[in-house]
UniProtKB/TrEMBL annotation:
An example molecular function term from Gene Ontology annotations: N-acyltransferase activity
Native species: Seonamhaeicola algicola
Recorded metabolic or biological pathway in which this protein acts: Bacterial outer membrane biogenesis; LPS lipid A biosynthesis
GO biological process, one term: lipid A biosynthetic process
InterPro entries per the UniProt record, alphabetical: Hexapep, LpxD, Trimer_LpxA-like_sf, UDP_GlcNAc_AcTrfase_non-rep
Catalytic activity annotation: a UDP-3-O-[(3R)-3-hydroxyacyl]-alpha-D-glucosamine + a (3R)-hydroxyacyl-[ACP] = a UDP-2-N,3-O-bis[(3R)-3-hydroxyacyl]-alpha-D-glucosamine + holo-[ACP] + H(+)
Record's protein name: UDP-3-O-acylglucosamine N-acyltransferase
Entry-linked CDD domains: LbH_LpxD
Residue span, UDP-3-O-[3-hydroxymyristoyl] glucosamine N-acyltransferase non-repeat region domain: 21-89
EC code: 2.3.1.191
Length: 336
């Protein structure tokens, strides 16, 4: 797929400085630019590379003024970083803008779907599934019985969506994600043997939810596991049964949330955080990576550590922890 500098400038509402007919067909870092590639300069640390890059076209801020000769065609915009991000989104949209139904596939007679749909080869669409307009379901995906998928949602290759799941509009489910598997429900008998508790609830994803690759969201035992509007989940996250995550909360990779915990709105949760079950985390909470959360958390708290402490307390404690060998030696010297 080739684009000229003038076409790109039109998409970004920018101005071309150089050859408007210069063509690019790939993207590159500015320090690794090659002929036919498009790059960008946003961080001043990389300014020196604009004079040596072999990229054909570079996106720069309008405030940029060259101090030496530049062979690269420039596209000047208000914000180079935002413009490059916009271009990436546009490129992704074009790349993934597939339509039609590939062979082989299975679509149950009771399933229904809207216009502009794409269903890749070896996809399975179960009984009573409803799929909206412009939905993209890539190859080897599984959509179980009674699933509902809203408009403009993308299900990438190999994702598994179990029965009764409800997915809203403009969602993204990445490869290997599993939505609606059974929650971890087992009860011991008098012999200490564990028997499965049936998990008969479902999962609800509201609009504009992104689910990372290999992330799992368990169905509720009763009721629903709910992921609210605008939530973004990274790769390899475990969300247990009956969890609720408030709107616009973001969670980084390898975090685990145990059953029936409620997480508020606009929270930021780092990677490898462990959160116990049956607690409530308030709104606007920030949890640093590798923290362990074992209690209710109030609105606006910032936590770190395992068990987690308020962020400033953790930093103060860590200073003492680092100095512990020195402190012990001082105590021993005093005792002597």
């Amino acid at each position: 797929m080739k684009f000229t500098a003038q076409q790109i400038a039109g998409i970004l509402e920018g101005d071309v400085v150089g050859n408007p007919d210069a063509e690019v067909s790939k993207l590159s870092k500015i320090e690794e630019g090659t002929e036919g590639s498009l790059t960008f300069l946003a961080n001043p640390k990389y300014t020196s590379h604009i004079y040596t890059t072999k990229a054909t076209v570079a996106i720069v801020n309008k405030s940029f003024t060259p101090e030496d000769t530049i062979s690269t065609t420039l596209i000047k915009v208000d914000d180079a970083y935002k413009s490059f991000s916009k271009l990436l989104a546009y490129y992704n949209e074009v790349k993934n803008n597939k339509e039609g139904i590939e062979q082989p596939h299975f679509i149950a007679n009771t399933a229904s779907y809207g216009s502009g749909i794409y269903i890749g080869a070896f996809a399975y669409i179960g009984e009573n599934v409803t799929i909206g307009n412009n939905v993209k379901i890539f190859p080897n995906s599984y959509i179980g019985d009674n699933v509902s998928i809203g408009d403009n949602t993308v299900v990438f290759a190999g994702a598994k969506i179990y029965s009764e799941t409800i997915i809203g509009n403009n969602c993204v489910i990445n490869s290997g994600a599993i939505i609606g598997a059974d929650g971890f429900g087992f009860a011991p008998n008098e012999k200490g043997e564990y028997h499965k508790v049936p998990q008969i609830g479902n999962v609800i994803l509201e609009d504009f939810v992104d689910i990372g690759a290999a992330t799992t969201i368990d169905r509720a035992t009763l009721g629903s596991t709910v992921i609210r509007r605008g939530v973004k989940l990274d790769n390899q996250i475990q969300i247990a049964h009956n969890v609720e995550i408030g709107k616009n909360t973001v969670i980084a990779a390898q975090t685990g949330v145990a059953g029936s915990t409620k997480i508020g709105e606009n929270c930021q949760i780092g990677g490898q955080v462990g959160i116990v079950g049956h607690i409530t985390i308030g709104n606007n909470v920030k949890i640093q990576a590798q923290s362990g959360i074992g209690r209710n958390v109030k609105d606006n708290e910032v936590l770190q550590g395992s068990p987690a402490l308020p962020y400033s307390d953790y930093n103060k404690s860590y200073v003492h922890f680092k100095n512990l060998p020195k402190i012990v030696k001082q105590l021993n010297d005093i005792e002597k």
